[in-house]
């Protein structure tokens, strides 16, 4: 088995806290609710990408690259954390972002700028983004490492495989057995890592990944992306799961609004966790996923008297770009 631990460049503070949500648990009294705080990974305000970037940045350095390219939305948490990781590792960071340059930078975009990323705005943006035109413009002395959108290739996925070992140890230490794990799923790497890690470390609970992006007819549908990453991971980690598409869990009940569109659902979730626990969610990912979890608790869509974990994957800086909708 590939030793995942030695293939990292340390960027974050781990383990992230695992603790109960006492006041939310009191409200939904049929359930005990825990939260895993990957909003506290520490890298330029944290988030799930820190775990992936520890593996990606190591690979960039090991392959003698001195420039990193990645892409995302203007409020991409992934781009902001990549910019921070590159600053730490001394790599030049280029981020390709969707749309025209705004007059005023806010939230993650502002932070990516402060973290030294060279930001390229493009209206010609899609999931199969072409980095080559940017790479070919580099000086000869520069060698580029490309991180896909969301850091979701097999290298990044290893970050969440390792996260499951961390979770297992914490659950054992705290004598907690969880029945359900809720988290947002978008580019697939977090989910694939969680699924592989569950297998590798013999964890047994039901996954409820909340699909963030609206469903499309595109071929590279999220479940297929997750399955491909899981299959790649199985080979790398010597696992034998024989998963097929129907084994990839994905809850599609909360993705009716387009990606990044703030609705009353996300606002309800953000308000509830802020007011009851002093914990801030983000408007795009964790707000949507936490709402999904609250809906399942409120309407008893999962079995009563169970223990539930919400994995907080970060995203706080994006709140500042949604000030109008939130106040
Ligand atoms: C805060 C936050 N949560 C969740 C996700 C989704 O993770 P993944 O893309 O690995 O599915 C992202 C992705 O950008 C994110 O920024």
List its traits.
single chain; 327 residues; alpha/beta; four-stranded parallel sheet; 38% helix; globular; disordered N terminus; binds pyridoxal-5'-phosphate
- Please mark out the parts with pLDDT under 50 across 5 or more consecutive residues, or reply none: 1-5
Heterogens: pyridoxal-5'-phosphate
Mind telling me the C-alpha Rg?
19 Å
N-to-C SSE series? Answer: EHEHEHEHEHEHEHEHHHEH
Q: Major beta sheet, specifics?
A: 5 strands, mixed
Query: Mean pLDDT, nearest integer?
Result: 95
How far do the termini sit from each other? 50 Å
Q: How many runs of DSSP E, i.e. beta strands?
A: 9
Strand order of the largest sheet: 1-2-9-7-8
Specify the structural class: alpha/beta
Oligomer: single chain
Estimate what percentage of residues fall within beta strands.
15-25%
Number of helices: 11
**Helix content class:** 25-40%
> What general form does the structure show?
globular
Fold and architecture overview:
- With 327 residues, the chain is α/β, with parallel strands linked by helices.
- The chain contains eleven helices and nine strands.
- The strands form two sheets. It has a five-stranded mixed sheet, sandwiched between helices.
- Helix 2 (49-62) packs across helix 3, helix 3 runs parallel beside helix 4 (107-114) and helix 9 crosses helix 10 (286-298).
- The termini are far apart.
- Pyridoxal-5'-phosphate binds next to helix 3, strand 7 and helix 7.
Q: Concise description?
A:
Helices cover 38% and strands 15% of the residues. By secondary structure, it is of the alpha/beta class. Strands 1-2-9-7-8 form a five-stranded mixed β-sheet, sandwiched between helices.
């Amino acid at each position: 088995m590939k030793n995942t631990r030695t293939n990292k460049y340390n960027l974050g503070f781990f383990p992230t806290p695992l603790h109960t949500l006492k006041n939310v648990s009191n409200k939904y009294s049929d359930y005990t609710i825990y939260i895993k705080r990957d909003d506290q990974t520490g890298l330029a305000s944290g988030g799930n990408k820190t775990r992936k970037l520890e593996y990606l940045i190591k690979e960039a350095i090991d392959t003698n690259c001195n420039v990193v390219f990645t892409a995302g939305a203007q409020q991409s948490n992934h781009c902001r954390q990549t910019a921070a990781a590159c600053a730490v590792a001394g790599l030049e960071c280029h981020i390709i972002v969707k749309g025209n340059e705004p007059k005023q930078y806010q939230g993650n975009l502002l932070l990516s700028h402060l973290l030294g990323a060279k930001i390229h705005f493009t209206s010609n943006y899609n999931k199969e983004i072409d980095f080559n035109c940017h790479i070919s413009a580099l000086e000869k002395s520069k060698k580029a490492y490309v991180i896909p959108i969301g850091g979701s290739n097999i290298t990044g996925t290893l970050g969440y495989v390792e996260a499951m070992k961390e979770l297992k140890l914490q659950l054992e230490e705290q004598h907690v057995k969880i029945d359900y794990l809720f988290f947002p799923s978008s580019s697939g790497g977090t989910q694939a890592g969680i699924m592989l890690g569950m297998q590798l470390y013999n964890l047994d609970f039901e996954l409820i990944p909340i699909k963030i992006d609206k469903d499309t007819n595109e071929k590279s549908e999220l479940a297929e992306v997750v399955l491909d990453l899981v299959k790649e991971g199985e080979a790398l980690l010597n696992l034998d799961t024989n998963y097929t598409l129907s084994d990839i869990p994905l809850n599609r009940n909360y993705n009716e609004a387009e990606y990044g569109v703030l609705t009353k659902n996300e606002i309800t979730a953000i308000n509830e966790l802020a007011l009851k626990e002093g914990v801030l969610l983000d408007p795009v990912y964790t707000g949507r996923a936490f709402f999904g979890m609250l809906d399942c608790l409120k309407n008893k869509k999962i079995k009563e008297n169970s223990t539930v974990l919400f994995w907080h994957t970060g995203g706080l800086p994006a709140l500042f770009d949604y000030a109008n909708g939130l106040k």
